[in-house]
């Protein structure tokens, strides 16, 4: 092979790596299986070998009564705040189960924590009034900063376990807040040999899209610390809240999405592994 051939080969390899910056990288995604599609496709499009290791299962709440009761009293609320796509899906499904539909949301101010949550509402035919610029609880509160909330009633359908920041701050500002369980997340069970198969060879990166995926991962592997198990694997987080949970688990966050979305997470990994 001549020097010229070497140059051409090197140029072709560089072009290929730029088109597929994650080529040859094994990346684990820990999202619930029914929600993993968008991240799986985004990473695969960048050339990654995607390993699905769901650490969350989405389940119905033990009882629909609290949510159904709130839906029957929609006229008592001025605001509905939803902080996840799962919350939207459950809320819309229960509207129908209670003999109502999204038209009954007219007159309510609807806030969605991010674009994916807003898109889920739009798909159901409901108009979202605001999405914060920062896609987390603090962003929702900032979006409401200029509003007089004294005496206003908020309905927040959400997961069984979630941060209490939003309802606490709203109540401090004089609002009446009704938090209702729309779904719950639980950690799935895996046989030890299945976990070993999925994690062999060690992945180049593992992604976490919520605090629950992080906490459940630690639970999943039992007594073996995640830090020891993951070794030099790149830890990729969707945003600051998830990163804080990961650090509490003793993990160093290598990659954090600038925008707390699936697209933002994929882009952060692309930038990290892109040849410099």
Summarize the structure.
The chain folds into two domains: 23-56 and 187-273, 3-Layer(aba) Sandwich (Rossmann fold); 59-186, Rossmann fold (3-Layer(aba) Sandwich). The protein is 41% helix and 17% strand.
Uncertain residue segments:
3-15
User: How is the CATH topology of the largest domain named?
Assistant: Rossmann fold
Count of alpha and pi helical runs? 12
CATH architecture annotation name of the largest domain: 3-Layer(aba) Sandwich
What this model shows, in words?
This protein is an alpha/beta fold and 276 residues long. It folds into 2 domains: 23-56 and 187-273, Rossmann fold (3-Layer(aba) Sandwich); 59-186, Rossmann fold. Helix content is 41%, strand content 17%. The chain has 12 helices and 10 strands. The strands form 2 sheets. It has a 5-stranded parallel beta sheet, with helices on both faces. α4 links the parallel β4 and β5. α2 packs parallel to α12 and α6 runs parallel beside α7 (165-172). The radius of gyration is 22 Å and the shape is elongated.
